[in-house]
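In the design runs reported in the main text, the only information available to the sequence generator was the tokenized backbone. The following block is the verbatim input for one such run; it is reproduced so that readers can re-run the procedure and compare outputs position by position.
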């Protein structure tokens, strides 16, 4: 029979059997087939700074990065990453031994978990979580233990007692994402301090996904977990250029940590992509040195777009959880008389000409995420205005 082996064994590794085509591929295809506005996948519809793009062109023309770059990343970028961490957060890293460049944050996550986990190790992650977390834990043979962020007074909050109760003798590491995708939650200083105390007390490794570090709004602030007492030596911090500079296709991410942890991650990473994004690494090095005015203007632009879409979604009848960070808004569809996010999102293109993502795909406990739907606001203002106009038809 076509597609089967002689033993009829499934072709896909059983660890990945639960992961089919991602919801992003399905919904993006639906956007194309219906001519809908795609507020599902999180990528901007405009490029980042012209001077950064020109830096990539210059690197290409000068022959920098057209061949294999160094395994850990080009020295200019590693130095720029270390300088960024020092300037922003007072974290000092040796660019030669404590910084590793990766093919985006997605590879950084995969390489870190493949490096640090043994089969049977438990990983605690805050649910809902970015879908690559579950797949990477599965590929490493680990067991994911979700701790669910729950709606409370207009945002999604972490229950610290639930987190403590989730730690067992089999827990190897905590996987922390702040600012948090998809809920937009930014963990507070008190919450991060409690996580740090728990990690030290139970001698846990911590992996922090901080790709939205420059997208925090209102009174929130981004505080790297590595800055807390006892955490620098046990934390692998993951960052990325894609979200900060709006060049998501370049796939330039990084890891900062101790020499021992970075060496472990590099041992796994070298057998994934080996190296990637040569010329773009030089451009990102220049991007990280942009003045503070760039980062402020970027944040203010996204804040205005957040408010535009949040107001429109509220008028359309959604309950809106206004995000403190990232460029996603989570909504509750129950005020619209709906309760199944999958069915709602699959019907929304025909109903309103807009595509969104059902949050349930980010949950192990699917029922906990069933009524929640995520919209991206990292689009041009006129696109968001048209989406809002279309969505208001739902209120009728």
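Verbatim output:
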């Amino acid at each position: 029979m076509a597609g089967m082996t002689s033993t009829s064994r499934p072709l896909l590794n059983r660890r990945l059997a639960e992961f089919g085509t991602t919801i992003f591929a399905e919904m993006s295809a639906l956007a194309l087939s219906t001519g809908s506005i795609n507020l599902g996948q999180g990528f901007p519809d405009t490029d980042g700074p012209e001077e950064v793009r020109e830096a990539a062109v210059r690197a290409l023309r000068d022959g920098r990065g057209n061949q294999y770059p160094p395994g850990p990343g080009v020295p200019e970028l590693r130095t720029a990453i270390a300088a960024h961490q020092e300037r922003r957060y007072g974290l000092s890293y040796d660019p030669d031994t404590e910084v590793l460049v990766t093919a985006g944050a997605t590879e950084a996550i995969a390489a870190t978990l493949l490096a640090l986990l043994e089969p049977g190790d438990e990983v605690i992650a805050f649910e809902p979580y970015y879908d690559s977390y579950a797949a990477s834990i599965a590929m490493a043979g680990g067991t994911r233990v979700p701790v669910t962020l729950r709606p409370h007074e207009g945002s999604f909050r972490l229950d610290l007692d639930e987190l403590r109760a989730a730690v067992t003798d089999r827990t190897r590491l905590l996987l922390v994402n702040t600012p948090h995708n998809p809920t937009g939650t930014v963990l507070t200083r008190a919450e991060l301090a409690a996580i740090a105390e728990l990690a030290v007390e139970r001698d846990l490794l911590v992996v922090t996904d901080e790709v939205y570090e420059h997208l925090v709004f209102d009174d929130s602030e981004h505080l790297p977990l590595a800055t807390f007492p006892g955490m620098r030596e046990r934390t692998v911090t993951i960052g990325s250029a894609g979200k900060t500079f709006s060049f998501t296709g370049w796939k330039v991410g990084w890891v900062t940590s101790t020499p021992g942890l970075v060496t472990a991650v590099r041992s796994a990473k070298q057998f994934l992509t080996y190296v990637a994004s040569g010329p773009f690494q030089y451009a990102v090095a220049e991007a990280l040195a942009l003045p503070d005015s760039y980062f402020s203007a970027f944040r203010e632009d996204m804040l205005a777009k957040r408010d535009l879409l949040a107001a429109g979604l509220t008028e359309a009848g959604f309950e809106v959880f206004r995000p403190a960070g990232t460029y996603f808004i989570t909504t509750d569809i129950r005020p619209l008389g709906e309760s199944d996010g999958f069915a709602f999102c699959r019907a929304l293109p025909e109903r309103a000409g807009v595509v969104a993502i059902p949050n349930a795909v980010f949950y192990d406990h699917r029922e906990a995420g069933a009524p929640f739907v995520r919209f991206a606001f990292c689009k041009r203002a006129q696109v968001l205005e048209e989406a809002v106009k279309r969505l208001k038809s739902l209120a009728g």
